[in-house]
Amino acid sequence: MCWAGRMILGIFRILLVLIHASAACEFGPSPYRTTGIVCRMTKPAGLLLNQETAQVIQAAFRNAKFPNITGERSVRLLGKVAYGLNNIQINDLSIEKSDVELKEENAIHIAIKNVTASFKGTLTYGYAGAWFLKLFHSVDFEIESSIDLQLNIELMCQEDQLVADASDCYLTFHKLTLHLQGDKEPGWLKQLFTDFISFTLKLVLKREVCKEINSLAQMLANFVLDLAAKFVRDKDIIVDLSLASDSVIKTGYVESHHKGLVLYKNYSSILSDSIFSPSLLTDSRMLYFWLSEHTISNLASAAFLDGRLALTLRGEKLQALFETEDTEAQQKAVQMIFQGTSYNDSVAKVWSLTQPQISLQPEGTIVKSLVAVEVSILPTGEESQVVLYMEKEITVTIQAAYAEKRLLLQPLDSSIEFKVFKCTADPSGNDPSIQSFIKNMISVVGIPEVISSIESALTSLMNSKGLDLFYLINPEIITREGYVIVQLDFNFPHHLLLDFLQKKL
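^ Cholesteryl ester transfer protein, sequence as received from the core. Prediction below:
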């Protein structure tokens, strides 16, 4: 899922978690017709992301490769004076403040105020005149500067993907002071070089710093796109995040619309008309995801085709399943079914016979499926023997939540309709006590156990993609007729940005 950081270009970094390219970046007249997934990041999130501006700006300055600056100028009485600034390196850097603004012309404006930076290096100069011999000198220098930086980040389509172009970059210098050999007092030599070096130095700083910022922007974008691609892919199951329409930038939010097709081997879901409307989402939370019933249903179908909707129970779990209550009737039914065999020598298998039918409603996610249960005993030295087999159509309503880095699935109403029932303890099927016991066992323990296993598997899957590294604040999962909304606030783990910059730069 999307957008899922705090950094200078984090304002679009999170956006790009869900932005993946369409083949030609050409869309039909209806912007939402085939939308299966929508991601919206609001202005409060942008302000939070912008807090880490200093980290990336500092990385851009420090990683910029400042070339040697050379020049020559005629000076009265001195003749031609040649100079070179060599080994230019950034020393100290600080940032006073950074502001972000969303513009409806599809651009994100970031203004960084009062970047104070100190550069050090070596100044070499030589001159030849009528009264002087040709001389060459080399002195250490330090340059103090104060700069404002303006970035206009444009979201644009390039070849087969949407990219963030940060090449529109401006540096405004409020101060550029040259000190020679630590001498802070003005002198003729300092004044001479300051006068005709400053302009060249400003051009070089602007070119190299802006080039490095744009390079970092593309590096971060590619990194996040790779993360997004991995997050929505697990083995052979892939969610296609191709754009269904152009991204939307309003003064209060940035929003992207995606097809949400599910791909599995040779199987691909088909595009369907969307019921999405921008009015379904607000701007009071930092981050929103809108997912259609069509996308959720096709994910369940892909999981079925991949054989993931199956569960095996042994030992204590099997015992907990069948010993729902300590009554004489229960003990008698268990004894008849297992024929006195230990739970350790028995196994129960549960699997879905058909693709689950998913319906999203205000009360929760309604799942309907034909499920098979097979219980076998494995006597020592003998082949396994099936003692219970049944097929039943189960309909269950599930409410979902996310807390403490775990997905929580709560089963509500459920209904069970037996289609096939075979039990060696009741071959005629005339013993109502066994069927009653089995039906109660499935309702009270069986369904919660299966849902708990799905809950655990999905949590592990999401954590394996790195979701547990993020600080999600009060996430809410809200189901409505035909769609689900996930809304949350967040903090970004500061160490992830530092680790990224250390590894990449």
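Residues 312 and 318 are 9 Å apart (CA to CA).
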